[in-house]
């Protein structure tokens, strides 16, 4: 379990000459009872790591699609505690590492130490906490360290070079390179300098760099992963799962595989 699982997952992808694909889903969208089956489906479809969102009432970084999924989950009464319990129940049945995406508030309400221990018990390998800046990391760092949970840092497009260096140095598991300014959600084109930005992050970072925000087509997956180690896809996956468009998800994941590239050319 734990941190090391993330590194292993990346190594397997590298050994196959593929890029990584990290789908994001909202825990409890469609009910927590369907979580295990969804995780299994994503694992079987070739996802590298799963980013699992915790529904929250004030999701400041989330665009409309993820916000709506969060509202659906909250309406079902899904809580952080229930999510961790559910994850613990089927941890033996999955091999895909799980990274929880949660804002700081639910962690605080839970209690930082109990939360970190519950994550370990549930088989959670890492955390993304979008409203936790570098300067405040000591609020959780000790507890996460003690429970072998990776803290994945987000590098924004507008961070100055010194800050990017610090984020790249500190991050664990991977560096999440945010590809746009603004919230999550599907978009048309990316910033002109994005490829250069990703390549420069690769240069300063020892662990994999994954690009996320606005990735919604197989072409995006190929285009962005060309200059980094892979992609994170949220809104598109959340939408497709909600509409039960599973083939669309398989096609997206396949775009990160080198085999798919050869057949497409
Ligand atoms: O939905 P998109 O544009 O594909 O972006 C990924 C994103 O949804 C997921 O990683 C995420 C959901 N909520 C977040 C909050 C902050 C950082 C990242 C996230």
UniProtKB/TrEMBL annotation:
InterPro entries: Aldolase_TIM, RibuloseP-bd_barrel, Trp_synthase_alpha_AS, Trp_synthase_suA. The active site is at 51 (proton acceptor), 62 (proton acceptor). It is an enzyme of class 4 (lyase). It catalyses: (1S,2R)-1-C-(indol-3-yl)glycerol 3-phosphate + L-serine = D-glyceraldehyde 3-phosphate + L-tryptophan + H2O. Coiled coil: none annotated. It comes from Sediminibacillus dalangtanensis. PANTHER family: TRYPTOPHAN SYNTHASE ALPHA CHAIN, CHLOROPLASTIC (PTHR43406:SF1), TRYPTOPHAN SYNTHASE, ALPHA CHAIN (PTHR43406). Its EC number is 4.2.1.20. Pathway: Amino-acid biosynthesis; L-tryptophan biosynthesis; L-tryptophan from chorismate: step 5/5. The alpha subunit is responsible for the aldol cleavage of indoleglycerol phosphate to indole and glyceraldehyde 3-phosphate. One of its GO terms (molecular function) is tryptophan synthase activity. Tetramer of two alpha and two beta chains. PROSITE patterns: TRP_SYNTHASE_ALPHA (PS00167). The lineage of its organism: Bacteria, Bacillati, Bacillota, Bacilli, Bacillales. SUPFAM superfamilies: Ribulose-phoshate binding barrel (SSF51366). The gene is trpA. Keywords: Amino-acid biosynthesis, Aromatic amino acid biosynthesis, Lyase, Tryptophan biosynthesis. NCBIfam families: trpA. CDD domains: Tryptophan_synthase_alpha. The keyword Metal-binding does not apply. Belongs to the TrpA family. This is Tryptophan synthase alpha chain. The keyword Cell wall biogenesis/degradation does not apply.
